[in-house]
Amino acid sequence: MTDLLSRTDPQNPWPPHQPAAAGPAGPGGPVPPWTPGPPASSGPGRHRGGRRLAVAAGALVLVLGGGVAGGVIGAHTDQSAAPTASAAANATNVSTSSATLASVAARTSPSVVTIMVQVPGGTVEGSGVIVDDQGRIITNNHVVEQAAGGATVQLSDGRSLPAQILRTDPSHDLALLQVDSSGLTPATLGDSSTVQVGDTVLAFGSPLGLSGTVTSGIVSALDRDAQDLNLSGLIQTDAPINSGNSGGPLVDAAGQVIAINVANASTSQGGGSIGIGFAIPINSARAILS
């Protein structure tokens, strides 16, 4: 199919929604893997991520401190009748769903790694997922393509290990790394051919260097083509995917990896998630393991 997101409308001056690589993280924001921007130094990239987190937290505090939403909700609750059996059942379902997603996040997080690559001028970061007990890790090619040698992998328990780049597949934007260590937790790989629009998913990774980040959403569409990235057959999701998420897993509600995060669409170069992210189906990514 044709990727309408990559087209430019000459009659519309507003910037088009362009798929952009979701990593590695750096001051320039997301950049297409085929035309990488200047490498980011480890210092500024980290500090920038920290400032963004602080701003977001400050905005959240201001919203809650205003009291408007809390007042409206309180008034509505006081004037409502006792919860019906249906309402109680819905509340139980929501609670159960949240608990299930929390358990999926807890099981999957030990399998997710942050990947740091030394490049001329600094360090770039991306994400990856441990796929077997041999210590092999799948990530995106654009995360490691500028590496002069190997890479460094940071595990969820804080350990940093040297990683060997076993092979790369630029045409599918995939790479396979390996670390030598015991006590690793491989993720469970699923079957992306069974994925349906509307399925609940979780995206894992290190956006802006914030390792251990988990976001949630649904599968928005299947078989998307991103012409700007020379990729096809992608899974579209509204789970937020940002710079640094590249190479991390997209996981279903059963805790199985169904895809590898690769890109997000944005209204401007370097922009953040607008709820349109893309991932490489795991059935396609399996090829790099053979």
Question: Would you spell out the secondary-structure blueprint of this structure?
Answer:
Layout: E1 18-21, H1 42-66, H2 68-79, H3 85-108, E2 112-119, E3 122-130, E4 136-139, H4 141-144, E5 151-154, E6 160-169, E7 174-178, E8 188-189, E9 200-205, E10 213-226, E11 231-237, E12 249-252, E13 256-266, E14 277-281, H5 282-285
Parallel strand pairs: 8-13
Antiparallel strand pairs: 1-13, 2-3, 2-5, 3-4, 4-7, 5-6, 6-7, 9-10, 9-12, 10-11, 11-14, 12-13, 13-14
Describe this structure in words.
With 290 residues, this protein is of the alpha+beta class. Helix content is 24%, strand content 32%. The protein is built from five helices and 14 strands. The strands form two sheets. A six-stranded antiparallel beta barrel has the order 9-10-11-14-13-12. The longest helix has 25 residues. The chain starts with 17 loop residues before the first strand and ends in a 5-residue tail after the last helix.
Fill in the keyword field for this structure:
290 residues, 6-stranded antiparallel β-barrel, 6-stranded antiparallel barrel, globular, disordered N terminus, 24% helix
